[in-house]
Design brief:
Elements: H1 2-39, E1 70-74, E2 80-83, E3 103-104, E4 110-111, E5 116-120, H2 126-136, H3 141-165
Parallel strand pairs: 1-5
Antiparallel strand pairs: 1-2, 3-4
């Protein structure tokens, strides 16, 4: 009889342990997903920009390859804006599927697939210019740089206007 009682106790304890572990795992995973969405850095888009979902989690996020080259302008407050420059993406049209995704790690850094050009504080760096030159080629570099400079300036003006009106 002692054997039977101890066996029932062990089985019951094992069942309770597995059930509580499953419940804990279920609620922990659900909470992590909600937290990752709430903690993602805000992304503001310019008028002609594409939808840019951001994603974070405790695990490394696989970088998805973008179809188009994207300019991402990082601002002081952690926000940013983005656009798809047409001179770097000749087959792009505003009516097409954007196929662009910008993901961030836990520190707010972009997980870059090589098609995202990061511009800090509306300043196009020499490194940015070299990247633009590599993508556009010598023949189209001036045109590409001019378009990007104009769009960055436009985004800066939009930000200043929103600060002054808000």
């Amino acid at each position: 009889m002692v054997n039977r009682k101890s066996m029932v106790f062990i089985l019951t304890a094992t069942f309770i342990f597995l059930a509580s572990g499953s419940v804990y795992y279920y609620f922990t995973m659900d909470k992590e997903e909600q937290t990752s969405v709430e903690e993602s850095p805000p992304v503001h888009q310019s008028a002609n920009s594409n939808p840019v979902p951001s994603e974070e989690s405790g695990d490394p996020v696989p970088v998805q390859e973008n179809k188009y080259y994207v300019i991402y302008i990082r601002q002081d407050n952690g926000a940013g804006s983005s656009f798809v420059p047409e001179t770097l993406n000749p087959d792009f049209s505003n009516s097409s599927d954007f196929n662009v995704r910008i993901s961030f790690d836990d520190d707010g850094n972009i997980l870059n697939d090589g098609k995202i050009i990061e511009i800090d504080h509306f300043e196009i760096s020499d490194e940015n210019k070299e990247t633009i030159k590599k993508i556009s080629g010598e023949d189209h570099y001036d045109e590409a740089l001019k378009e990007i400079e104009e769009r960055v300036l436009e985004a800066k003006k939009d930000q200043e206007e929103s600060k002054s009106s808000g």
